[in-house]
TrEMBL record:
Xref: PANTHER family: CYTOCHROME C5 (PTHR40942:SF4), PTHR40942
Example of a GO MF term: iron ion binding
Domain Cytochrome c: 44-117
Pfam families: Cytochrome_CBB3
Keyword Heme annotated: yes
Keywords: Electron transport, Heme, Iron, Metal-binding, Transport
Protein known as: Cytochrome c5 family protein
UniProt cross-references to Gene3D superfamilies, sorted A to Z: Cytochrome c-like domain (1.10.760.10)
Length: 123
């Protein structure tokens, strides 16, 4: 039985290791995609309102509210139209409290927040 020396098995192992290490060098690391827990409006003032008034329910799967960015959950609501969504936000609906914990929000802010959470654009 021939004796194996380090050079007979080391070279392929080193080549394989170097190839594996170099394979990851070509791409830059991408920032993680926002999740329901980290998504925030790009407008700083709106982000503060979302964080203070909406995130508690719309980023919590156990709250029963449609989650931010969950287009399937928002689709039937969006189909009702912006006026209905705005009415539900202002007057409350099911588990949604009146004014959605944002007593100072304007209709424009509510529409912007609904648009952000639903992923839809409203006029």
């Amino acid at each position: 039985m021939p004796a194996t020396t380090p050079s007979t098995w080391l070279n392929p192992a080193v080549i394989l290791l170097l190839g594996t290490l170099l394979a990851g060098c070509g791409e830059e690391a991408k920032p993680p995609a926002p999740t329901v827990f980290t998504a925030m409006p790009s407008d700083a003032a709106l982000a503060q309102v979302y964080d203070r008034s909406c995130k508690l329910c719309h980023a919590n799967p156990g709250a029963g509210a449609p989650l931010t960015g969950d287009t399937n959950a928002w689709a039937p609501r969006v189909a009702q139209g912006a006026d209905t969504l705005l009415d539900h936000a202002i007057n409350g609906y099911n588990g949604m409290p009146p004014m959605g914990l944002c007593m100072h929000c304007s209709e424009e802010q509510f529409l912007a927040l609904i648009a952000f959470m639903s992923g839809q654009h409203f006029q």
